[in-house]
Write the structure tokens for this entry.
Amino acid sequence: MREQISVDKAIKRGHLIVNVPVFIAIIGCPALALYLSEQNLIPGWGIGIAFLIGFVLAWLIWSFMITKWRVWAFENVRNVHELKKRAIQEKLIWNDGNIFEKTEIRNTDDKRKLKDLEKKFEQEDEYREDYSLPPKIEIHFSKAYIYFELGISVLIIGVGIYLFTIGEKKQYILGAIMAVIGIYSTIKQYRKAFNNKPQIIIDSKGIQTKNVEFRDWSNIELEEVVQEGYGKSSKSYLIYFYDEEEFEKIEIDSLNVTHRELENILRTYRIRHNKNYS
């Protein structure tokens, strides 16, 4: 029987065989052109051409290698739903139907294999209980995150005061705006720093958040941790539906739990509930 590869291992391999060559192509072509230009081997405008070549080459590499990774990953990973979700979140692949997904290079054999692998998506993912987790988990604001944000806020205030004291009209206005923003952010983070109440409580009976009173697992569905946005502006949220039509969406970036940790917590306590109350 073939050994199943973990989702984490598949994602790491995807970055290695797809994103690393793409990065090398994008950076390498202009870097090589810059070197050749400094050696007077090519004209200066060749650097601009190299940027274009690097982009096209990188896209071709991605289009070819991502298909090879798809086939390998979906063949060897059991939890294909989680794998696909993670791959989209980590910018390895695009959402179904996205115009960029259509640029993937797939030969006849690739298409046949991917078509056959669609059957795996008819099965639900399987997870194991994490026995290291306690009977109940309380999730609070992250002190490290708050202190970091406080530092940024104080820095903004400092820059604002500096610009404010220069005396010129433009700097005066900009300084005042920055100082106000910094003070507002400082007050906001200061309140969080002294807020010791749990923002999320999860156990084998259900979930409670700062916004929604306790709900039993039997009244909760489609619980998941999602990431919205791209790059540094992306944010992670705990989302779940309850009482049929209601839903909760709470940001977790400022809490003392990571995206992956919260996913594991949700799965474990859902499993415990099913074992105890099924």
